[in-house]
Amino acid sequence: MWQRVRRSLTFSNAVALVALFFALGGTVYAAAGKINGTQIKPNSIPGNRIKPKSLTASQLKANAISAAQIKAGSISAVKIQKGSLTGAQIKAGSLTGTQVQSGSLTGTQIKAGSITGTQVNGSTLTGVSAAAIGSVQYATSTASINEASPSGTSTTANCPSGTKVIGGGASVSNNETAFVNESSPTSGRNGWVGVGFGPSSTSITVTAICTPVTTATG
Known about the structure:
- This protein is of the alpha+beta class.
- It has 2 helices and 6 strands; from the N terminus they run ααββββββ.
- The protein has helices at residues 2-8, 11-31; strands spanning 137-144, 153-158, 164-172, 179-185, 191-197, 203-211.
- 12% of the residues are buried.
């Protein structure tokens, strides 16, 4: 029998058998999942051939997906990793106040000069003292009390140009012998005035708290 096989085994038959072996072996090799990314030609697999959720973020090459390839509304806030976005990556005007979570921004995260007074809701500033406002300036004025003056001694602390008074007060050098009769902003909100009574050995000091404002009302 072996002699018959040898007589029928020609060179062409041998080549055909080898080719068949490699063809079947290659199919089995591919079917066994031995094809990696380096063997796939770029852009050879369209998006509709990829099974939904079959790719994870770790399988995507950095910068492989551009903003134009992301469907609008397909990424929600919960899908964005904390700290993965910087201010430079957010398009100007793309965020409104309603999209910013309350308490998510601190003062150090807001660019200096990016918010003006007209953009701040006054009712939201609770527990803020004048000393905590960076642009606040103080003006003071001291005068010796004239004991002989029936209307008392008046002095005014005037605010610097371009500012308006937002608060103030008056005090005397000796509370046992002198007193403050009046302490209030000036009519034009340009300063703070105080009136004191007492002996000539005492004095009255007035302090005005001033800050730049667009308009002064009230």
